[in-house]
Amino acid sequence: MASAAAQNPHHPTLKLDGLAHGVLTVSIMMAVLLQVLDTTIANVALPHMRASMSATQESINWVLTSYIVASAIAIPITGWLADRVGRKRLFVWSVIAFTAASVMCAVAQNLTEMVAFRAFQGVSGAFLVPIAQALLFDINPPVKHGRAMAMFGMGVMIGPILGPVLGGWLTENYSWRWVFLVNLPVGVVCTFLLIRFMPSGEVRKRNFDLFGFFLLAVALGSMQLMLDRGQQLDWFDSWEVWIEAGLAASCTWMFIVQLSTAKQPLFDPKMFVDRNFGFALVFMVVTGVLLLAGLALLPPLLQTLFGYSVLDSGFLTAPRGLGTLASMMLAGRLTGRVDARFLIFFGISCLALSLYQMSGFTLVMGSRLIIVSGIIQGFGLGFIFVPLQSLAFASLPASYRTTGAALLNLCRNIGGSVGISVVTSLLARNVQISHSDLAAHITGATLPPVPPSLVSQIGGSADAAMAMLDLEINRQALMIAYIDDFHLMMLVTLASLPLVFLLRGAKPAAGSEPVVMD
Questions:
Q1: Are 288 and 145 in contact (CB under 8 A)?
Q2: CA separation, residue 325 to residues 37, 39, 380, 405 (Å)
Q3: Which has the closest alpha carbon to 98: 36, 148, 165?
Q4: CA-based diameter of the chain, in Å?
Q5: Which candidate, 28, 45, 166, 18, places its Cα nearest to that of 87?
Q6: Residues 425 and 232 sit within 8 Å (Cβ to Cβ)
Q7: Is 139 exposed, middle or buried, given 0-12, 13-18 or 19+ CB atoms closer than 10 A?
């Protein structure tokens, strides 16, 4: 099929024949969808899993937490492991392990097994997205990098949006176990295609910074646990949160020192000298906040306050994926022809507009504003993601691509975790504040006379009337809290706009010339 001719000794840019290129691209995107779908597809099945395993509300959340923590810890070693064992071998075995872990999750009989299998799934899936992104850069010439990132972005951005829809449909029509079993046929086909069409890469021996990895693993694991459990434990009223915060802060500082002083650190510090790559990491944190925090807020809002079913709420969030799909196709064609910074600026502006629309949600509105704001938000995400990826790798040497892709995905995950934690915490606190403010104005003197017909309907009890009124106050307070979260996200989006002007125009990356494959 192909043989490597290396101009760059580490990860050359490869050119495949038409059939091999098309099939390999499809198989790479299948692997990406496997991983990103499982970040959200299991969320809607949690109540059914909880009943099946006789778990508590707090303990069932470990099904999500174990996956996130394990993935976060494993992502940073992607670059070293790919060089050490070869990218093809690591990618293929990751797909096999992820598929096997999915089957084990489907047949788990208790919560302990489920948490262990989800952690295994998180570790094996952590390598898929960074390697897939680096591979798409390597098998496409620089002029097509924009289109390659558009295709990659479709999987990364649309997968989490479609996850709740697919998960809700499978759970309602079959069983929660099919949320994991659906990965089996995709994983088997993907494995055979990768073995057949993926070219073997070179193996390069690199020393491993075990101490640096230990510090980073403890920092990331502690931070994820703090963010996931902080709301349940009332944050810093709990000693556990204090310990996790202390470990995260101290290990992060020690890791930075290790990175600056070690002879062979976990990441080459030269990567962070590249200005575009450095600011791309910051933008990816913001993108993670807006993508995953928005997905965490909208479905509960639609189900709790507007009365939509799980499946209907999934369909109402799906238009955001359609907006992302359209914008990524357009951005893929425009990248390289239009200044990428202008495209990013336009995308951030669309995000701010959509969040402004969402801050105007009311309890008496229909579904039109939900759909329109979702499409605009998805449209903006596509115009951020595609040109940002191209700028991040434009001047980064090809030998850093796998590690760079891992860091970008790690930043997106960190941004999502921080964003979800902040918005859910503020939601809980603002509900209490808004309820207190609204209830302060409700007294016997301010209440209008209750019609006799209503009195008879509620049994003629004044306590029952006040209970109904309190329910309505709760609804209004919750709506205000959601609006406050959307308003905060809009301000964060606007605050990131000036960062666009700190980016530089694209320059050719070292070692990015295409290499013809025989």
A1: no
A2: 16, 19, 11, 21
A3: 36
A4: 88
A5: 28
A6: no
A7: buried
User: What's the pLDDT tens digit per position in 92-149?
Assistant: 999 999 999 999 999 988 888 888 998 899 899 888 888 888 888 777 777 777 777 7
Give the burial class of 35: count Cβ atoms within 10 A of its Cβ; 0-12 exposed, 13-18 middle, 19 or more buried: buried
Sequence-distant (6+) residues with CB within 8 A of 417 are 68, 72, 223, 224, 227, 228, 288, 292
- Domain positions in the chain: 13-208+266-431+479-516, 209-260
| Angle, helix 275-304 to helix 145-173, in steps of 10 degrees | 20
> Please, are residues 292 and 416 in contact by the beta-carbon 8 Å criterion?
yes
The alpha carbon of 425 is separated from its chain's Cα centroid by a whole number of angstroms, namely: 19
What does the alpha-carbon distance between residue 226 and residue 217 come to, in Å, rounded to a whole number?
14
What is the architecture of the domain spanning 13-208+266-431+479-516?
A: Up-down Bundle (1.20)
- pLDDT (tens digit per residue) in 8-56: 444 445 666 667 778 888 888 888 888 888 777 776 677 778 788 877 7
DSSP for 182-216, written as a single string: THHHHHHHHHHHHHHHPPPPPP------HHHHHHH
**Coil, helix or strand for 123?**
helix
Residue 178, SS3? helix
- Which residues, 6+ apart, have CB-to-CB distance to 270 below 8 Å? none
Q: Do 81 and 132 form a contact (C-beta atoms < 8 A)? A: no
